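We examine the record.
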Amino acid sequence: AWFPWQVEIDARVGGRMAFTHPQGAATAPDAVITELDPPHVFAYTWNDADLRFELTEDSDGCVLVFTHAFGERPPAAKFAAGWHLSLDALEAVLAGEPVPSGDWPGLHMRYVEAFGLWDGDVDGDTLRFEQELVFPPGVVWRALAGDSTLGGPPPDRLTVPGVPATSITELVEGRSLAYGGVRVELVPQDCGVRVVLTQSGRPETRAAWRDRLVSFAGELARRPVGG
């Protein structure tokens, strides 16, 4: 009732959990239960991550401590926004209230800002920005690259002051675009896409790129998912 997947659970340590998306919009591997101590602890590994729910009695109710440990930063905001909405839904179900619809894209952007996920990294003279967005690859590509053509100018979305907007030298529809020392790649993910932008030669443009990417992601967040 509160989780966005349908789940079949073999409730024992070492038991498997099978996930099915109700709309068939995504797939996921099975999880394996690592801790089970009813009614206090439930933990499992899923998608190379460790997830744990722990309940502690507190007056007439209880305190839920939930942790999700994973190995890289780009999906952090997507996970945080998803669990935020799921736990809000759990609270509503327990209270006998309708499950709120929530604003996943908007909440995702707030976590991106809170976690500093568009700040980028500098390695020598190379900038790198890597972040997951909660939109299909085609939606992100159209908004980012538009009708770009090989040999033509780069789209305004992929330019910043101080970086010459030379002709496009690489263009793989829906996947990658490059010009000068700038390259952007879209990597499909479950429930979204990862945007990877690198630029060599001008690390001082880091703040300008951050502002450009935050603005772009914010505009996307105001669209309906899939729109």
